[in-house]
Amino acid sequence: MRILVALTYYRPHVSGLTIYAERLARGLARRGHEVTVLTSRFHPRLLASERLDGVRVVRVPVVAKVSKGVVMPLFPLYARTEIRRHDLVNVHMPQLEAALLAALGRLHRKTVVLTYQCDLRLPPGLLNRIVQGALVPLNHLAARLAHRVTAMTRDYADHSPFLRRYQEKFRVTPPLVELPPPRPAVTARFVDRYGLAGRRRIAFAARFAAEKGVEMLLRALPRVASEIPDVCVVFTGAAHETVGEQKYHEKLRPLLEEQRERLFFFDLLSAEEMASFFALADVLAVTSLNSTESFGLVQAEAMLSGTPVVATDLPGVREAVRRTGMGEIVPPGDPEALARALLRVLRHPERYVRPREEILRTFSVDEALDRVEEVFRDASHETP
């Protein structure tokens, strides 16, 4: 099958959405499909076209950036050209161009499958309110035109006002969890480089975006430190370069300064290094606040590395701990509950850790790709 995967940001941009899309594209290519990714050329150093891991990547020129999005006047031309070359269009949402892609797919009698990654909530501001308001009818148009709409968990779909409207065409396509085993030498190098020996470590692996709720962890940290004085937090992700989050960074600054002696910021890490990053931690904190998080791939990745998780009780986000028992679930936006759960895990990690083989069975990447192919084949039988 010739598959076009379309999303606003692709690698080297770092987010759960881009990582999922990259794993999907590579996995389908490994299985013999011809896969093209259509995305933005969000930085001028990126090539306009290249082949990565068997996947053809086509990047559309960007003339401006607006909040978390980009302006691409040539996108309709690129999209029409690529859609005509492919059998199936897989549109990853949120994406401003989703309705356009779905309409062009239908126009050219192609199969259209939407992958609904999460809701979109833009930062405060008049322009952002206008953009978000305009996206609502466009998103619904895209879903009406699509042959199938997918998300990673039934839990998220059942609680999503958007997805509930399209239950007849909704299908679950599970999270794609891929991570090699940790490398003890790399973990030891991290510990030595950052002076982490003898400290209890809480990991946070996410962009510094308002919906990720890092301030909840920063506010919980003094309570944890009052009982475990050597505790610290190790961060990785786009902590200081998150698109559209400048005001949020300013809000965090006093909290970061207050806790600076306990905070360690790692560079962006490769997949191989991420496994060792998770392995050096005693617990991973996932403090997401709303439905802009639909699962949190880092949870399953940490579990594969032997690290328990404390995650917020949000649809989809709570699924990893529910399925494995490898952690605690706490109310979103509650630093005190977060602190108590972190303390429970830090004091009794043996209650939570499960064998890597068990986690691999729970989040089988082969079974997830099987399911994606099944949904794609099923949808293609309805085309046009």
What report would you give on this structure?
This protein has 384 residues and is of the alpha/beta class. Helix content is 42%, strand content 20%. The chain is built from 15 helices and 16 strands. The strands form 3 sheets. The chain has an 8-stranded mixed sheet with strand order 3-4-2-1-7-8-9-10, with helices on both faces. A 6-stranded parallel sheet has the order 13-12-11-14-15-16, sandwiched between helices. The chain has a two-stranded antiparallel sheet with strand order 5-6. Helix 9 links the parallel strand 12 and strand 13 (263-265). Helix 7 (184-194) packs across helix 10. The longest helix is centred in the middle third of the chain and has 20 residues, at 126-145. The radius of gyration is 21 Å and the shape is globular.
Structural class designation: alpha/beta
Number of strands: 16
- What is the overall silhouette? globular
The mean pLDDT is: 93
Radius of gyration: 21 Å
Count of alpha and pi helical runs: 15
What percent of residues adopt helix (DSSP H or I)?
40-55%
Distance between the termini: 16 Å
What topology, given as strand order, has the largest sheet?
A: 3-4-2-1-7-8-9-10
* Uncertain ranges: none
Largest beta-sheet details: 8 strands, mixed
Strand composition percent = 15-25%
List key phrases describing it.
single chain; 384 residues; alpha/beta; eight-stranded mixed beta sheet; six-stranded parallel beta sheet; 42% helix
Write the layout of secondary structure elements.
Blueprint: E1 2-6, H1 16-30, E2 34-41, E3 49-52, E4 55-61, E5 64-66, E6 69-71, H2 75-85, E7 88-93, H3 98-107, E8 111-116, H4 126-145, E9 148-151, H5 154-158, H6 161-164, E10 170-172, H7 184-194, E11 200-205, H8 214-227, E12 231-236, H9 246-258, E13 263-265, H10 271-280, E14 283-286, H11 297-304, E15 309-312, H12 319-324, E16 327-330, H13 335-347, H14 356-362, H15 365-380
Parallel strand pairs: 1-2, 1-7, 2-4, 7-8, 8-9, 9-10, 11-12, 11-14, 12-13, 14-15, 15-16
Antiparallel strand pairs: 3-4, 5-6
Helix pairs in contact: 2-3, 3-4, 7-10, 8-13, 10-11
